[in-house]
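quick one before i forget lol
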Amino acid sequence: MTEQKKSVLFPFTLSSNTILPLVLVIASFITGTLYTKVQYLEKNNVPKQVAAQAVAPQQGSQPVAQVPAGKIKDVSSDERIRGNKNAKVTLVEYSDFECPFCQRFHPITQELLKAYGDKIRLVYRDYPLPFHANAQKEAEAGRCIAELGGSDAFWNYADKVFERTASNGSGFALADLGPLAKEVGVNQQSFQQWLDSGKYTQAVKDEMADGNAAGVNGTPTTFIIDGDGKTQMLVGAQPLDAFKTVIDQVLK
């Protein structure tokens, strides 16, 4: 099948004298592209670990929980929580509304909540990556909606952004945030005033700093915390079974 595709795309024969130069040209192009991207990220003060993630995205294939590099900030009752607020197991997700891996992971969190019912709860925390142009404002918008409309309005907002964004930086237009706020039941004028004022700009940055202190350097990063406060960390859009394995162990 592969050879058939090649013959359609390239209906000519490459000799050994032309293959090597062609390979070198392609390799040079790829190397140059990656170098340019890294230089851009470093120039804009993107941490090296995050820059590396942008060049070589997470594979989501290692279901091995890690020990956090630092202490995660305690969960408070006024955070954006989905599920039973008194659940035995807590999942704290550091996420970015324009991250394609977060978009892929979002339905998995919903499946986990359905599978475990009142045994788990999900906490959303902001970690907008600096090379995603709209992520910071979308994070601020989420906080405005949570304040004006409550937790249900926020989760409705999160669901719709992840459903509609094309991700990778600016997939959901900032001009559509106001109408979306209205759609999820929030006063659009009040929302827009708060968003434009930068009311939650620093709060989002502070939450990122808390994540950094705990070892977050990319999205999604999820901390799984048991009733005694023991914490494990899963990095990336890991498959459903990876989370079930860890959660089942915690619930024993």
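fyi Confidence is low (pLDDT under 50) at residues 1-14, 21-62.
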